[in-house]
Amino acid sequence: MKNSREQLATTFLPDTATAPVEWRISDGLTDYRHAIAFMEARAASIAEGTERECVWLVEHPPLYTAGTSASPDDLVAPDRFPIFQTGRGGQYTYHGPGQRVAYVMLDLTRRKQDVRAFVAALEAWIIATLDRFNVVGERREDRVGVWVRRPDKAAPAGSVAEDKMAAIGIRLRKWVSFHGISINVEPDLEHFSGIVPCGVNDHGVTSLVDLGLPVTMDDLDVALKASFQEIFGPAA
Predict the structure, then answer these.
(1) Average pLDDT, the chain
(2) What is the rounded CA–CA span in Å between residue 53 and residue 47?
């Protein structure tokens, strides 16, 4: 029997002493094409050993991205926002103002060459970050991402409604990761209606502010960094 992602989740520290992961935060809205070009170049340099690992926090203008498993049927409003085909795993997702995207460029040859365990570690990072705001994030074995229960919403008898709080989509090249995670702080949740987010029809999408929490992007960034260092090691 395969281990669940929760069982796989553990620290993803480098196996030898390395320079701290570079921690970058960009103000304003970052062009998606620029982000892809940066990640491609940085991942190549990390693999060559010429630059250090990096986490880059950005916000994007409204757009949809399609992962390698995206179904055309899940693109509900193809003319609404720009659509980008991307080599990350997963299906359709939305990025836009009020959502923190964290691009994660780590060298797994110096950590652990295990894709499932890496995804579990990213989930653990998100869950630990949400916990700092007293939000209980949960993983689901049948779908990637982090979810929160919504007892305030209607649900089928015997079940509890739940909404998606964070998405994960990664790509590896020469065992260096890029793309990453997104967490909803205060995006326009109606923008998600133009797609079937991550191919999941039966659940909604939420944000920290939607849950009634007055969390700012700066607040989230502080929590993200603290939780990251617990799982992946120093960042500066």
Answers:
(1) 92
(2) 9
Per-residue b/e over 94-125, b at no fewer than 16 CB within 10 Å?
Answer: bbbbbbbbbbbbbbbebbbeeeebbbbbbbbb
pTM over 0.90: yes
According to DSSP, the β-strands at 22-29 and 63-66 are unpaired
Q: In whole angstroms, what separates CA 81 from the centre of its chain? A: 20
β-strands 176-184, 204-205: how paired? unpaired
Q: Dmax over Cα atoms in the chain, in whole Å?
A: 56
Position 159: which residue type? S
Q: Which pair of structure tokens corresponds to residue 97? A: 């103002």
**How much is the pLDDT for 152?**
85
Task: Report the C-alpha gap between 79 and 39 in whole angstroms.
Answer: 27
Residues with active-site annotation? 198
Rounded to a whole number, what is the distance in angstroms from the first to the last CA of the chain? 39
Q: Using the structure block, give the residue that is written with the tokens 């790509």.
A: 171
pLDDT at position 221 is 98
User: Which residues are registered as beta bridge partners of 150?
Assistant: none
Angle at 217 (CA atoms; ends 211, 219), nearest 5 degrees: 85
Residue 15: its pLDDT value, please? 87
- Tell whether the model's pLDDT for residue 205 goes beyond 80: yes
